Amino acid sequence: MHSAPKIVVIGGGSGQPIILKGLKKCHVDLTAIVTVADDGGSSGALRNYLNMVPPGDVRNVLSVLANVDEEIIDVFQYRFNSDDDMLAGHALGNLILASIAEQDNSIFSAVNRLSKFFKVQGNVFPVADEPLILHAEFTDGTVLDGESAITAAGKKIKHVWVTPQFTLDEHRLPEAPSEVVNAILNADIVVLGPGSLFTSIMPNLMVPNVAEALLATRAKVVYVANIMTQKGETDGYSDADHVRAINEHVGERVVDAVIMNTAPVPDDYIDWKKWNEVSKQVISDPEHVRSAGAVPVVGNLLELRDDGAFHDGDKVAQLIMKIAEAKNID
Predict the structure, then answer these.
(1) E strand spans, the chain
(2) What is the pLDDT of residues 137-165, one digit of tens each?
(3) pTM for the complete prediction?
(4) I need a surface site. Which of 44, 104, 190, 255 has the fewest CB within 10 A?
(5) Which of 186, 223, 176 lies closest to 6 in space, CA to CA?
């Protein structure tokens, strides 16, 4: 049997678990690197109350990669009702992560312990062992701090960056643990996305030693292009525009291939009130993807469910595996 390819998936939000769930079924050595810049919902409240890394995205990744009875995961993922006073809206798994992180004084250690409890397939690494603040400069020249505020602004973003939330040195840069850097350097494939470009993917890439590792690695860097644009943030963006934004933020061309959906999203299917952050289908532009220095890898990757448009994680995983097995992707 061939050795399992080492695949690292970088991201956050709801898109990353979909891809991880598909890759979990494949013969792979899997690592998930998860953003720690979220400041909304239960994660944001715990972050503010306990001065801890927001646990929500990490919790969802652990749940997907766990190899325990589904009943255990259902309990871990349980969210308290909105009328439960101080527990309202909190996911039980977030509270468990918070308690272990407080006990160990480290979210990285807490995730490692829970990974063993849940018999996680592969590795789950928060991109930093401290909460990060996401900052954005918009094209109108204004600046906002905080992922939730940036998303709510609904304005076109020019540039984002991250800083440590708690520091006495305003010049101190965030730093990923050595496990994160080594996973990227030793990978065969590094997958970016899918997910909100500026608020789920970029916060990871803006950690300086993560960007350096992406530029130094011999791995093929694959971007899974979003199916839908996000209001304000990426309105009118093609898949090539997403690639250019990633390359510009990292500082050099880093994306080698782009996995792109070819199936049209029916206009009358999406519940626009339920999925109020999305706007229109991302413009497919293989020619300009090539001009950005990346190879288009296309397929019908659309899954219509819950009145929304999502990636079919199994189909995306199959394309990632084909890239991993190929000697070249030109």
Answers:
(1) 6-11, 29-34, 123-126, 132-138, 143-145, 157-164, 189-192, 220-224, 228-230, 257-261, 278-281, 295-299, 302-305, 308-311
(2) 999 999 999 998 998 898 999 999 999 98
(3) 0.94
(4) 104
(5) 186
Q: CB atoms < 10 A from the CB of 265, how many?
A: 17
Report how far residue 197's alpha carbon sits from residue 203's, in angstroms, rounded to the nearest whole number. Answer: 9
Mean pLDDT of the chain: 92
Cα(139)–Cα(160) distance, integer angstroms: 11
Cα separation, 98 vs 54, whole angstroms: 9
**Tokens matching residue 99:** 């308690």
| Encoded tokens for 297 | 């890898």
Class of domain 6-35+129-325 as given by CATH: alpha beta
Model confidence at 330, in pLDDT bands (50, 70, 90)? Answer: low
Question: Where are the domains positioned within the chain?
Answer: 6-35+129-325, 40-126
Provide the pLDDT confidence category of residue 43 given band limits of 50, 70 and 90. low
Amino acid in position 312: D
| Distance between CA atoms of residues 249 and 202, nearest Å | 8
Which single residue is written with the structure tokens 């973003």? 157
Both tokens assigned to 280:
């229109």
Q: From CA 219, how far away is CA 119, in angstroms rounded?
A: 27
